[in-house]
Amino acid sequence: LALAWPSNEIAVMGAEGAANVIFRREINAADDPEAVRQQKIKEYQVELMHPYYAAERGLVDDVIDPRQTRRIIIRSLAMLRHK
Q1: What global pTM score does this model have?
Q2: Domain range holding 42?
Q3: Alpha carbon distance 9, 53 (integer Å)
Q4: How many CB atoms lie within 10 A of CB 16?
Q5: Taking a C-beta distance cutoff of 8 angstroms, is the pair 73, 39 a contact?
Q6: Which of 13, 46, 51, 77 allows an S-S link to 17, with CB 3.0 to 4.6 Å?
Q7: Are 23 and 49 in contact (CB under 8 A)?
């Protein structure tokens, strides 16, 4: 069971490292590589690191309200009790 809160950032690597790898050619070809790198880092954070992106791809089972965490964990453990 993998749960996430809406504020979670979920990714294989940090935004800086990922942006440097994924957008390397675009960054190197830019007139202002540092500005493009910063823009790509922000884009990566906004578009790819949020828990809803992870949920869409099956990396987490659900994105839950933090206030409901205790109730959901108790219910989930009860469901798994006899497995």
Answers
A1: 0.71
A2: 3-80
A3: 10
A4: 14
A5: no
A6: 13
A7: no
Dihedral angle sign, alpha carbons of residues 8, 16, 55, 61: negative
Which residue bears the tokens 């990566």?
Answer: 44
Q: How many domains does one find in the chain? A: 1
Chain-centre distance for alpha carbon 21 = 17
CB 32 within 8 A of CB 23: no
Rg (CA), the chain: 18
Judged against a pLDDT cut of 90, whether residue 82 lies above it is answered with no
> Under a CB-based contact definition with an 8 Å cutoff, are residues 2 and 8 in contact?
no
